[in-house]
Amino acid sequence: MSESKIRFPWKVTVEDEFKRNPKLTQEDFETFKNWYKNEKHLPPIDDEMLLHFLHACYYKVEQAKVTIDFYYSYKHTMPEFFENWDINDKDIQDVINNAILSAPLPACTSEGYRVIVCKLNDTDVAKFNYPVCVKWLLMSCIHAIWNQGTQNGYVIVYDATGFTMSHLFKCSMSTVKNYINYGKNASPIRVLKVVFINTSPVVKKLLTLVKPFLSKELINMMSFHVSAESYFKDLDKSNVPEDYGGEAPPMLSLHREFVKTISSARQWLIEEEKIKCDETKRSGKSKKEISPKIDTSFRKLEID
């Protein structure tokens, strides 16, 4: 069903989105919306949320049906990412205040893509909490679609500076696989590129270990740069953080401003966390076991 009981803070309405996206048709949207209403296990949501899934799937209605079903199913089967969305939660505060820097660049690229840069703020392995880092990125994603509406595409840049084998060993195989599956199957945004900068042998090792879980499409989206300059040289200097030789504020400033912005939506994010599917109402096979746990650690794989 659609029509959320709570109206989320959309700054770009459905009407605005139709003006923004000429390839979006009323017929496709109504077809998707009517299908959703008849899926009793899916939660009530705003029309804008429906539209984002349709946009993420390039207006392919059948693909959007599968994607949105995965999204709300994963909110059950991936609690490490989708529970405790209170920004004041201690684990989240530890991550955003100590472990990582994560923020969008000030402006879109010339192609209209929004670039999000993520890096370690402190290389102390004890402060690295991979599931909560992913949770923060997913919270940021939802806030972005509330705040900015649909985008031509997103580029996710991971700066591998300071990422060591010890960090890798703290990541469970199941958690990494879950994040990959989310990216493959359930994202409400168009992620067009995944860029790794300042890469090291550790990044190559990680790719080798997770490659069996990656689709050909995901592999083709990835690019690797041994330096930051080789990626940022193609961007306008005014849009590149000072840390990387540009004229924009440094990553720490961008991150702090981003955290402040998302913190203002704290109550909305808490409400968003509650919106999940009800598998007892699903007609057909339940997806409760869609993401079985794999206890293998990267440390064990390395030893093997």
TrEMBL record:
Highest taxon above the source species: Eukaryota
CDD domains registered for this protein in UniProt: SEC14
UniProt GO MF annotations: phosphatidylinositol bisphosphate binding
GO cellular component: membrane
PANTHER family named among the record's database cross-references: ALPHA-TOCOPHEROL TRANSFER PROTEIN-RELATED, RETINOL-BINDING PROTEIN PINTA
Descriptive protein name: CRAL-TRIO domain-containing protein
